[in-house]
What we know:
Blueprint: H1 5-10, E1 23-26, E2 31-33, E3 42-44, E4 47-52, E5 61-67, E6 71-80, H2 89-97, E7 111-115, E8 118-135, E9 141-152
Amino acid sequence: MFSSTSVFNSAPNDGHGDGKVQTFLIGEDTRWEFLFNPEKLGQGKEARYNPVPAHGITVPELNYGYTSGITITLPDLLLTGYCRGKSYLPVITALTDLLNVKDGKYRPETVDFLMGKRRIGPAVITDVQPIETGWTHSGNPSDARISITLLTVRQSRKTDSLPGIPQIK
Length: 169
């Protein structure tokens, strides 16, 4: 197996810290703090091309269309409250409501994803998939895994002025 020490040596030192990394999803007027940090974070971006059909050619020419925003996937975020009798129905409902357009708006609310000093956004939530794995005695979800997909968008919005949001330098 080949290993390039020049690539390794060029990576910046970032330290290990104290192991306590706070993770937030910040809306235009709301903030969610993650119960547990994500186990995984997927990131993707793609260039979109349109084929130009031509007779007698098996591989068509391609015209560049656009490059998408960054897609962030946060799979299997853990919500657990069974042992304390807590229900996560309000959290699941609030997150799925972010997919809807509010009155007087032209698109769903944008959010920022913060993990430590890393900030990704603004973004729209394109997919929320909760899977309930435990329930309270009243039938509400107490344990769940929820997967969230975000797509970064262009928008100027200042979230640093919201109370309780860490200032990112």
